[in-house]
Amino acid sequence: MIELFRSLFTPPRHMILLVAAAWLGMTLSEKRATRHNVSIEALNNLTFYGLIAFILGGRLFFAFGHIDAFLKSPLSLFALNPDLFDALGGVVAAILTMLIYGQRQKLDLWNTFDALTPLLSVLMVGLGLSHLAAGTAFGQPTDLPWAINLWNADRHPTQIYETLAALLTFGLVWTLKPNPRSGLLFLTFTALTAGWTIFLAAFRADSTLLLGKFHAEQVIAWAVLAMSLGLYEWRIQIIEKEINL
Amino acid sequence: MQPTIRRILFIVILAAGLAWIGLSAGGTQTVTAAPQEGFLAPDFTLQSITGETYTLSDLRGQAVVINLWATWCPPCRAEMPALQKMYEEYKDQGLVILAVNSTVQDTASAVAPFAAEHSLTFPILLDDTGLVTNAYQVRSLPSSYFIDRKGIVRQVIIGGPMAEALLRTRIEDILR
Question: For residue A69, which of A97, A234, B37, B165 is within the disulfide window of CB 3.0 to 4.6 Å?
Fold first, then answer.
């Protein structure tokens, strides 16, 4: 079953899973947009500009990082190779563009984050599935009965763990009762995602090690978790002050 | 939830996270052979179209690009000139390009004329039993593996054609 899935979505076709997740997530975000006082049109424009900035920014950041290679063959800037891409640069470009657009349109930051939460949580499911298809983010060898054979060893199916955790997170944020306190839905999502990332990254075998022993994903996720919980507390205090006034 | 209880809960969660990070610290993977980034490149021995024998492990100390291809595959054909250009540019720095024809799914007699037509000077190997195609778990052609001087796969690129800039950045990475 897993082999069939991996054959169907073998790279670069695994990106279809991300595109499908983005489409489904966006559809769900649109459905709930008005609940967060964000118009569907504004949400569509925001994500469209963000997507364009992600694609262009990712390529441009990569090109600036390897300027010599691109000066020798400038037409490569327009090549269709997805590997000529700096994902972190793309994310930075997308966030900046979305912040600028949101500010110009006077979108409330926390309401917008809440409106985008279904999109982000479905994207996390798509990411887990694309990892499974590509065989990346693979687990450590194990003899557990649910191990999958990958890269010549029986391993923890970390991609399946990741997909299930993302599905549960989506299920929770989708079914939570509407909360008039803006930002808490988004912060619940980021805290949960960071929480299961800290737990599951322990089973991964492809991690970059910090200081020779700490999984980089866990350290980054812990920082995100701390920030999410801190902001959650801060949002509650701000909102309670507003209510008391 | 009471604010104090909530804050204590948050602190407990963060402390548990730190403890788990500490508990799960340590090495992540042993170096075994697999066609994936971070693994030792699976070894093989194949004959070239000119009759020479190439064993991957004999090339340890040199940076190696393994390009699996077939004559009927348009992107494979399209990226050959860029591979040839890179080979000419970097071979003196220790680059070896092994163009492994997946002969198990190609016509052996078409390979040599193809190489001559494109003036390819790097070794063209014939995988007529599917040994490399299977060992590298090839699902799509072309598939390219960038292997560093220690024999570790540093990058896998599936699909093509690869742009010159892509080849250049990956080759410079494995030549370091």
Answer: B165
A46 within domain boundaries: no
Give me A154's structure tokens: 């029986």
A236 touches chain B (CB under 8 A): yes
Q: Which of A235, A236, A25, A48 is nearest to A129 (CA)?
A: A25
Contacts of B38 in chain A (CB under 8 A): 206
The verdict on residue A56 lying in a domain is no
- Which CATH number does the domain housing residue B86 bear? 3.40.30.10
- Residue A222 contacts B, CB cutoff 8 Å: yes
Q: Are A116 and A104 in contact (CB under 8 A)?
A: no
How many domains in chain A?
1
Looking at the DSSP bridge assignments, the partners of residue B20 are none
Per the structure, the count of domains in chain B is 1
ipTM of the predicted assembly exceeds 0.85: yes
Residues 88-127 of A with CB under 8 A from B: none
pLDDT of res. A140: 93
B19 domain residue, yes or no: no
A20 within a domain of the structure (yes/no)? yes
Domain span at B105: 29-175
d(CA B68, CA B138) in angstroms, rounded, equals: 8
Residue B116 maps to a domain: yes
Three-state SS string over chain B comes to CCHHHHHHHHHHHHHHHHHHHHHCCCCCCCCCECCCCCCECCCCEEEECCCCEEEHHHHCCCEEEEEEECCCCHHHHHHHHHHHHHHHHHHHHCEEEEEEECHHHCCHHHHHHHHHHCCCCCCEEECCCCHHHHHCCCCCCCEEEEECCCCEEEEEEECCCCCHHHHHHHHHHHHC
Render pLDDT for A46-67 as a digit per residue (tens, 0 to 9): 999 999 999 999 999 999 999 9
